[in-house]
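Allow me, if you will, to draw on your knowledge of protein folds for a short while. I have a record of one protein: its chain in single-letter code and its fold written as discrete structure tokens. I remain grateful for any guidance, and I place the record below:
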Amino acid sequence: MSADADKKLRVAIDNKRSQKRRAVWKRLSEETTLYKWMKMKGKTREDVAKGTDSTLRTVEYWMHGQMLPGLVSAFKIEAYTKGAVPVASWLGTAIAKA
């Protein structure tokens, strides 16, 4: 196989993997209450990070259900969202991942 053909094959495989990852992230993100609230209120990751004293990456993980907030962070999220994303909303995510 020529170097050019090999490169095209690798690009095609990477594109397919990226499509799958995006589909999984989209599915996961639509399941979290935080993501739904952010979408409804037009809030950005930056807004939530600032309002909860967190990093952008951490907020992204929470949005997509890849990481659960600790208890203190969950209460900060609840306070920032004025109760729209209660601490208890993360419990369902934890049980589903178990």
